[in-house]
């Protein structure tokens, strides 16, 4: 749990001032420090784990890898399938569906290692946008699969960035229901 | 008991820990631990314990009844339940037809449960029935999104995932309200998709 030495500190996104539960449970931030959690490195780690953006290196690297791979795979597949004989609108729509279809198993593969929704949604976004961009380019001029894979990787990195930004904004936003 | 749902989760039990046991648990662990720290000293129902991955996040010394529709899931949960330093009873039950008396529990906890319950409002009404007046519902759930393109992607994913597992586009917060609970807190864990939801059953008239 998130503590700094001597004094309990509320993690971002949790209620520090919330009163104890009627039934005796206490919010994490209001619990007295126990013997283990007051050690400084644990406290720093705990704060990082509950912050508004992902700060754990393992997951950041995982997110980047998953989207680089998904982008490259979808880009290459779209470059091989679509070409100048395709109507641009149809190619973009078909590409969008194909990109999401390819991205889904990739998200399951990486999701088992790095998280469920946090992997699935950026990877699906990567699949959707990469396929649209590559399919559109392929209808204008033939594009080599390696070049398309490179484009896909860049779009994958951009999708991760967009999802991190959206997450930071949405997590700070007040719930519309209360 | 809903046999179709039971069989679906019995089939999923074999590979469930492979998919959900490492990455998702590691990523969501701190948030689940914070939510489950609300577990009090009264009687607690944990709906859909699955293979028991969440047991590691339960605070010690509580009296918990954990249910699941799948007997195969419960078989896998047994060793984890045995290590819990408190009273933890595993029972096979369908959340739509809970085998408990009215107002038997002080608190109900769920974790990624109502993405899979076929009739979510009916299931939540069943939880409402077994909760005491003023009792608390605490949920860690993934839901649909209100924002494009995430909402579109959740709808597309649901077309595939509902065949072997959960649905990705459930309006769980609205369902909680529709079941008669009063929301006390909704916190986003990831985007507006993964969230913790806390709600309360209205106290009986004349009580605070």
Beta-strand residue fraction of chain B: 25-35%
**Helical content class of chain B:** 25-40%
Order of helices and strands of chain A: EEHHHHH
The largest pleated sheet of chain A is described as: 2 strands, antiparallel
Counting copies of identical and different chains, the oligomeric state is heterodimer
Mean pLDDT of chain B: 92
Regions of chain B with pLDDT < 50 over 5+ consecutive residues?
none
Largest sheet strand order of chain A: 1-2
Mean pLDDT across the residues of chain A is 79
Characteristics:
heterodimer; A: 178 residues; mainly alpha; two-stranded antiparallel ribbon; 64% helix; B: 208 residues; alpha/beta; seven-stranded mixed β-sheet; 7 strands
Write structural notes for this entry.
The complex is a heterodimer of chains A (178) and B (208). Helix content of chain A is 64%, strand content 2%. Chain A starts with a strand and ends in a 6-residue tail after the last helix. Chain A has helices at residues 40-49, 57-81, 88-114, 117-140, 145-172; strands at residues 3-4, 7-8. With 178 residues, chain A is mainly α. Chain A has a two-stranded antiparallel ribbon. A seven-stranded mixed beta sheet of chain B has the order 3-2-1-4-5-7-6, sandwiched between helices. In chain B, helix 1 packs across helix 3 (71-82). Chain B is globular and about 45 Å long. The chains are: A mainly alpha (178), B alpha/beta (208). At the A-B interface, helix 2, helix 3, helix 4 and helix 5 of A face helix 1, helix 2, strand 5, helix 5 and helix 6 of B.
């Amino acid at each position: 749990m998130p503590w700094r030495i001597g004094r309990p500190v509320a993690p971002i996104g949790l209620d520090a001032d919330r009163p104890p539960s009627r039934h005796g449970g206490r919010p994490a931030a209001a619990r007295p420090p126990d013997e283990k959690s007051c050690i400084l490195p644990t406290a720093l780690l705990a704060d990082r784990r509950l912050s508004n953006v992902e700060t754990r290196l393992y997951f950041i690297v995982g997110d980047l890898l998953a989207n680089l791979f998904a982008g490259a795979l979808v880009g290459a597949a779209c470059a091989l399938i679509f070409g100048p004989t395709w109507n641009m609108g149809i190619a973009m729509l078909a590409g969008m569906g194909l990109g999401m279809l390819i991205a889904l198993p990739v998200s399951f593969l990486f999701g088992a290692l790095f998280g469920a929704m946090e992997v699935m949604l950026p990877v699906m976004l990567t699949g959707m946008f990469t396929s649209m961009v590559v399919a559109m380019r392929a209808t204008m001029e033939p594009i080599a699969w390696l070049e398309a894979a490179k484009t896909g990787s860049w779009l994958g990195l951009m999708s991760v960035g967009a999802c991190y930004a959206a997450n930071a904004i949405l997590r700070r936003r007040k719930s519309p229901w209360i | 008991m809903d046999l179709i749902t039971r069989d679906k989760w019995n089939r999923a039990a074999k590979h469930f820990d492979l998919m959900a046991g490492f990455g998702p648990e590691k990523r969501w662990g701190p948030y689940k631990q914070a939510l489950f720290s609300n577990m009090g000293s009264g009687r607690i129902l944990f709906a859909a314990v699955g293979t028991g991955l969440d047991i590691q996040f339960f605070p010690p010394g509580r009296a918990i009844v954990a249910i699941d529709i799948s007997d195969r899931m419960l078989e896998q949960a047994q060793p984890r339940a045995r290590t819990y330093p408190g009273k933890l009873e595993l029972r096979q039950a369908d959340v739509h037809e809970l085998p408990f008396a009215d107002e038997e529990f002080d608190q109900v906890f769920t974790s990624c449960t109502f993405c899979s319950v076929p009739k979510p409002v009916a299931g939540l009404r069943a939880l409402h029935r077994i909760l005491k007046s003023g009792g608390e519902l605490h949920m860690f759930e993934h839901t649909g999104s209100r924002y494009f393109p995430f909402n579109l992607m959740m709808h597309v994913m649901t077309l595939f995932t509902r065949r072997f597992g959960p649905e990705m586009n459930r309006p769980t917060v609205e369902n909680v309200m529709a079941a008669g609970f009063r929301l006390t807190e909704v916190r986003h864990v990831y985007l507006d998709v993964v969230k913790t939801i806390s709600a309360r059953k209205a106290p009986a008239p004349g009580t605070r």
